[in-house]
DNA sequence: CTGCGGTCCTGAAGGC
DNA sequence: TGCCTTCAGGACCGCA
């Protein structure tokens, strides 16, 4: 699913390829995924594409912005030029087939240099138009960005000591830290050698320091690999290529397989209603 | 404040 | 083969 590293990969790509382009049309195939009036953005120029947490923020020349949240199965695919499948010769390996628009295409944003497809099979994700991104209901509640200096060992210490929630659940809390989802929460905890069920406030200073460092190093590594595109994950890059992190995952979806470090079998447990993966030997309670 | 369970939604996987 | 059930999950909401 698209978490910070995946959305970072998407926004970097789009910022490079669609900044400066003009929105000539918006085709809304599913109103729920684009509930506002498309005329609010048609004719506007894209100034930049940025990320905040797991949201893609497309800043427009008319002082508005489009906020895209991909939830679990969302994709943003960019096809340069005017095309159909016979003309392009380019097969895009989408999860639901190789054609665009596909079965899960919900919105097509037409630009003067190509088309941006918003695919979302589950229909949980959506695009909304905001006048003031900072005031947006979801964006305004987000905690610090992991790569921002606001996120520090001291900050983490303060947040952790306030709650007895399992540390895994806390890492997923977007109000505490923005951008971590189910894949990287498990991966970070493995790297930090912390059991996902440990109460947040039970972590000692040394563990908090390790957790901080693991958060940054795992996210940085995942960005380097262009995110994670396991077979059952919808995420692919805007050019249709797959991310590579799944080949290097330590524990995520590796239950029953040997731990890469100690060969014990990786376990799956449910924490806060979500599947969580860990090595019972490397991450003792 | 916390935590729990239901809600949205669809495709994949499992059972018979 | 094919139908039916179950499950997964990010964020939110109502309830205890």
Keywords:
285 residues; alpha+beta; four-stranded antiparallel beta sheet; 6 helices; 21% strand; globular; DNA-binding
Structure description:
- The protein is of the alpha+beta class.
- It has helices at residues 4-18, 85-88, 153-161, 167-171, 182-191, 205-224, and strands spanning 23-28, 46-52, 55-60, 65-69, 74-80, 105-111, 114-120, 126-130, 267-271, 274-278.
- It is built from six helices and ten strands; from the N terminus they run αβββββαβββααααββ.
- Strands 1-6-7-5 form a four-stranded antiparallel sheet, covered by helices on one side. A four-stranded antiparallel sheet has the order 2-3-4-8, covered by helices on one side.
- α1 (4-18) packs parallel to α6 (205-224) and α5 (182-191) crosses α6 (205-224).
- The longest helix has 20 residues, at 205-224.
- It is globular, with a radius of gyration of 20 Å.
- Mean pLDDT is 92; it is low at 85-91.
- The protein binds a DNA duplex (16 and 16 nucleotides) through residues 1, 32, 54, 69, 71-73, 95-96, 104, 120-125, 138, 163-165, 172, 174, 181-182, 232, 272-275.
For this structure, the quaternary state is: single chain
* First-residue to last-residue Cα separation: 27 Å
Biggest sheet strand order reads 1-6-7-5
Could you describe the largest sheet, including whether it forms a barrel? 4 strands, antiparallel
Q: In percent terms, what proportion of residues is strand?
A: 15-25%
- What is the ordering of alpha helices and beta strands? HEEEEEHEEEHHHHEE
Topology:
Elements: H1 4-18, E1 23-28, E2 46-52, E3 55-60, E4 65-69, E5 74-80, H2 85-88, E6 105-111, E7 114-120, E8 126-130, H3 153-161, H4 167-171, H5 182-191, H6 205-224, E9 267-271, E10 274-278
The protein binds a DNA duplex (16 and 16 nucleotides) through loops.
